[in-house]
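Complex 590.
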Amino acid sequence: MKRTLLLLGATLLMTNIEAQEVKELHNIDFELGVSGWVNRGDAKVAISTETANSGSSSLKITNRSQVWNGASFASGDIVSGKTYKVSCAFTFTDTRYETHTFELCAQYDDNGTRYVTMASADVTRGKWTEVNGEITFPSGAGNISIYVQSKYTTEETDIDHMDFFIDDFVCIGEELPEVESLCNLYKPYFRFGTAVSTSVISSASGKSHIEKHFNSLTAENEMKPDAMLSQSLSKEKGEPVVQLSYGARQILQYCSDNNVPLRGHCLVWHSQTPAWFFHEGFDTKNEVVSKETMTTRMEQYIKAVFELLAKEFPKVNIYAYDVVNEAFADGSNGLRTAGKDASKGQSYWTLIYGNDLFIEKAFEFARKYAPATCKLYYNDYNEYIEPKRTNIYNLVKKLYNNKTCDGVGMQSHLATNYPSVQLYSETLDKFASIGCDIQVTELDITIESGASDATQAKIYSDLFDLYIKHSSHLSSVSVWGLHDGMSWRGDRKPLLFNSDYTAKPAYYSIIDGLEIENAIGDIRVPCETNDVVVFGIQNAFIVEALNDGEIELYSLSGSLVGVYKYSEGRNIIALPKGIYIANKQKVIVR
Ligand code: 9MR
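Predicted structure with 9MR bound:
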């Protein structure tokens, strides 16, 4: 059973977490590959056996056209607010030069991009020279990386572009608590996704976080109508023409390279859709088009989107698409108000059609042109508020029955003070009664005044209990961003991770207490104790007991780790980091 979060919240606040030991976090000798090092700028990086400080290979950096072109390294365990000791050996073999200076540096964002030279050294040709540095990243710093280059100068000559080698990179610092992969833990139930932006997909720390936790991505803005529709090309061709921006390409390329499925977001929407799309000649100085013209345009546009994606990114598994987004008004009006001003919530779609025919048409066309494996959703927010809830229910039911729509996307932009888990749960039940699929598409929960991290965590926990309960007809849950720093409501800290990628109580609340079998298969543990609650914290596990007693702890493979005595009340038992089984429960010691 999942234990209640109240307890978890209290635990986190009450426990005096011991300072973490400093450890060797990375020791990269390039014997097994580039190990996370990537090129910086136009440079190329590759393993070379031409020379090595230790072993038989090193990292060679070539193709440098500017002094800052070099190599860089980022990892989710190098984070803001912490200090790191870093060292790396350098050499070069270019016979044109006898000596040159190389630098070991760090880069991060903190009110702009900061570049810090941690250490530098004069290196003699053919001789390996070790460079040692240290850095403390300010709290709140983002996009952290460590990099190497030759000594910075504004008057560059050929020597500043020469090839060089590095070897034996070592980084020492505080070890972060190991966190489990969200998508692995939830694999038996549903996909675990996130929205991503161009900047996060371009940063090494963002990528490593995505790689670990998510098996579905949604482009936060990059695939919306305004990002894809080209006015000039549409005017030229006389029909809607779509293209992919740099950002959209970055995200799609990541999905393609890493085999991560994509949720397409979105096709028909009142917002982030250019006004000219709805006017004669693709120009707002002309009249708004007729319903018939708009239907033709809509078909051409939807066809063009799917054709472009199939042509440019044939390997990407677009497993879901928000075909229509936010068509209904809050309040009692049914569809959004007809009008041209999206900033006031008005919709050109309602203006042109006057009824929900555009929704039907959008699904008809999406079904016609989307890959057969792509499920199609009607997506909306405030989906738990009547009469919007019933409007969505009726619409999706109709479209599901005529087989053009596969399900409902519940955006789920929630707050600690509204809605209640009960109301949300009733909404899930109602949509589930259609028989269609449900996807939670944009989950975040803002912390409102008077609430705490623990309040938020409790709601997250309750929601994930519900999602598990509904998992036979709920195929995907996505949070709307990787961390609080990149959230559209970041001031109220609505996500699972802090801006430095450390896990929040909300994260622990949704992984803690998952049934053992979910994560590790069927394990029989011969330990049955009543009247105790056990759970893991940092460096210890806690036994809260009504009586004195003893408890057996098992490893995941079922072997006995130890028998621990406890007395009535709260017992803190120090244990190395790991996952244990106690009282038939998985206990995570962080
Ligand atoms: O997160 C998106 C934000 O960066 C944009 O500024 C905003 C503009 O409309 O859209 C946000 O994403 C929205 C999503 O596409 C649809 N549901 C509501 C989301 C939050 O506004």
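The two ends are 20 Å apart (CA to CA).
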